[in-house]
Amino acid sequence: MAEAKKRQSGIGRAYISASFNNTLVTVTDESGKTLVWGSSGASGFKGTRKATPYAATTAVDRVIKKAKDEHGINEVEIYVKGPGPGRDAALRAIRAAGVKISMIADVTPIPHNGPRPKKKRRI
User: Fold this and answer.
1) What is the pTM (predicted TM-score) of this model?
2) Which residue blocks in the chain are alpha helix, DSSP H?
3) How many Å separate Cα 106 from the centre of its chain?
4) Can you say how many angstroms the Cα of residue 64 is from the centroid of all Cα atoms in its chain?
5) How confident is the model over 71-123, as pLDDT tens digits?
């Protein structure tokens, strides 16, 4: 069986999930297949240092460099999720990496009314 040939269209999607404890970065192709991923923890940060903007910048730099070198990504659509401190730093790192940004979307889930409250306690 022949190995699947990598398509190098140059366009991808970057998903950034910024929580209060970590920042996850995933780069996919146009159809949504994961090409490269990384996180602040995978970049060597532990504990509370994972939640810093610098750790997010480091994670994004590693992921974008690998995506450019191995998969030829030079333009990305960015989808940002979560309220974490690495959110803005990740966007700045992508811009500084020399990748063209075609779109930025905030896909943070927002509850519209939440679940039904518990019934009132009776004593």
Assistant:
1) 0.83
2) 53-71, 86-96
3) 11
4) 10
5) 999 999 999 999 989 899 999 999 999 999 999 999 999 888 888 989 999 98
- When the candidates are 3.40.50.2000, 3.30.1490.190, 3.30.390.50, 3.30.420.80, the CATH number that belongs to 11-106 is 3.30.420.80
Q: How far apart are CA 18 and CA 82, in angstroms?
A: 5
Which contacts of 89-93 are long-range, i.e. CB under 8 A and separated by 24 or more positions? Answer: 89/53, 89/54, 89/56, 89/57, 89/60, 90/16, 90/18, 90/23, 90/25, 90/56, 90/57, 90/59, 90/60, 91/16, 92/57, 93/56, 93/57, 93/60, 93/61, 93/64
Give residue limits of the domains in the chain: 11-106
pLDDT digits (tens, 9 = 90+) for 16-41: 999 999 999 999 999 999 999 999 99
DSSP reduced 3-state for 85? coil
CA–CA dist 113, 70 (Å, integer): 44
Tokens of 39: 């996180």
Report d(CA 73, CA 82) in Å as an integer. Answer: 24
